[in-house]
Design a protein that fits this description.
The complex is a heterodimer of chains A (108) and B (119).
Chain A: E1 3-7, E2 10-14, E3 19-26, E4 32-38, E5 45-50, E6 56-59, E7 62-66, E8 70-75, E9 84-91, E10 96-98, E11 102-107
Parallel strand pairs in A: 2-11
Antiparallel strand pairs in A: 1-3, 3-8, 4-5, 4-9, 6-7, 7-8, 9-10, 9-11
Chain B: E1 4-7, E2 10-13, E3 19-25, E4 32-38, E5 44-51, E6 57-58, E7 67-73, E8 76-81, E9 90-97, E10 109-110, E11 114-118
Parallel strand pairs in B: 2-11
Antiparallel strand pairs in B: 1-3, 3-8, 4-5, 4-9, 5-6, 7-8, 9-10, 9-11
Classes of the chains: A mainly beta (108), B mainly beta (119).
């Protein structure tokens, strides 16, 4: 069965303390791995798409990487405004499978 | 680019009424739209997928007569919750994407959601 698991469930960082969020997937025929940011009471905001193992994408303090089993979202020197829930989703043959997200809190 | 507008953002109504939620893609044509429910601290639960001009495909356990979906144009999809009851209270989110349901690996772009509260 297709599955996406995100860890940790919650993460608290001090401002400037770099870390990584993990998205492990078991999806047959992966056609894309997507990262989103979701603020409370809002819809998810698209960040990145990764299509093949070894691919990397960067945007400001965020960098997403992909292997055949997992994806990482690296956050370098985070700021309080990076606090949000980060969702990943894997596109299989027929469906998008969403993880439950990592709630990130960056303290000033 | 890729802006999706969802309206209304919040609805409070009495049990038994019907509620319509609109989802519009503002700067692109969305051949496929998705409707989700999201519970607190939970992931997105797909309710249905719709392609413009054809009937929506509902996920298992979602009552199609309860949650009516219309995808009348390439920029507009609506979800109508019929005879709403308190258990229908939730956060409903739509998304839009180019390409057909099976033929595209493009990202979904989401609206800001509708908080539905049934008294």
């Amino acid at each position: 069965e297709d599955q996406v698991t995100q860890s940790p469930e919650a993460l608290r960082l001090q401002e400037g303390e770099s870390s990584s969020l993990n998205c492990s997937y078991t999806v047959s025929g992966l056609r894309g791995l997507f990262w989103y940011r979701q603020d409370p009471g809002k819809g998810p905001e698209f960040l990145f798409t990764l299509y093949s193992a070894g691919e990397e994408k960067e945007k400001e303090r965020l960098k997403a990487t992909l292997t055949k089993k997992e994806s990482f979202l690296h956050i370098t020197a985070p700021k309080p405004e990076d606090s949000a829930t980060y969702l990943c989703a894997a596109r299989g043959t027929y469906k998008y499978i969403f993880g439950t997200g990592t709630r990130l809190k960056v303290l000033a | 680019g890729a802006v999706v507008s969802q309206h209304p953002s919040r609805v409070i109504c009495k049990s038994g009424t019907s509620v319509k939620i609109e989802c519009r893609s503002l700067d692109f044509q969305a051949t496929t739209m998705f409707w989700y429910r999201q519970f607190p601290k939970k992931s997105l639960m797909l309710m249905a997928t719709s392609n413009e001009g054809s009937k929506a495909t509902y996920e298992q356990g979602v009552e199609k007569d309860k949650f009516l979906i219309n995808h009348a144009s390439l920029t507009l999809s609506t979800l109508t919750v019929t005879s709403a009851h308190p258990e229908d209270s939730s956060f409903y989110i739509c998304s839009a994407r180019v390409g057909t349901a099976f033929g595209s690996n493009q990202p979904q772009h989401f609206g800001d959601g509708t908080r539905l509260s049934i008294l």
